[in-house]
Amino acid sequence: MRIKVFGFLILMAALSCKKSLPIEEYHKGNLTILTDASFESVTQALADGYMMTYPDTKINVETKKEDHAFMDLLQRKAKIIVMSRDLNGEEIKEYERVMDLEYRPDRFAADAVVFVVPKDSPLQSISMDEIIDALHSEEKKLIFDGTNSSNLNFVAQKINKKPSDLKFSILSGNENVIQNLEKYPGKIGVVALNSFSRPYSKEAEELRNKVKILPVTVKGKSISPEILNLANMSYPFTRTLYFLTSEANFNMANGFIRFSCTHIGQMIVQKEGLQKYNLYQREVKMY
Fold first, then answer.
1. Which CATH architecture describes the domain 111-238?
2. Which one, 7, 18, 268, 269, has the greatest CB density within 10 A?
3. pLDDT digits (tens, 9 = 90+) for 37-73
């Protein structure tokens, strides 16, 4: 059954009424979460928060391209993964067949794919048409962090293309793209906002100081990936991050999902420099 989350206290009260669910099943034990490197930072921050709240838990955050993570989930090699792109109809059908669960993604944050250039670049913005043209040009002007990466998958889905139909350059890893972009004049990096969105991180600040983010022009209006534009989803490459799990009962994976959607979890998302999902209408699972 799905209910709307009204608050942390109501949630805890509801859980305490489920006497058939032993507390130790969600606050003791080990769990591995698979996440694309593009949103590893927010996933790790949530994992750290969960372990601080429940000291008898151990969460390992492992990076893996989201398509590969989804395959691991289907093969039951993973209990929980983080995704950004929407599954297609066939993928949803296969998930429901294998898991014997209804496909109901648990969304917890709004991130964005952003287009960056060195600080001294004359470019001030990029239009949707320019992005599409670049992805069909032999110049391979856009640099992504890898094939099968969440950034590439999301951009391809946004323009209704398959990643295999697009032309682009590759440097492995978001941070690597940012650190080395100045070596490739005329190129534009395509990275995750979460790779350098943490406002109080020295490492993130150093990355931010190396590049500038290009606003995306839509119908003559330039829109930056600022928090307000993520909240109203006016920035065209806003994406919502969500969890998928193979766990049918309220064990540690669903406990972590629940924690991430509570007020505490959403505060962690905000401290990561991302948009909290609790501004959007949402539903989560209650057992």
1. 3-Layer(aba) Sandwich (3.40)
2. 269
3. 999 999 999 999 999 999 999 999 999 999 999 999 9
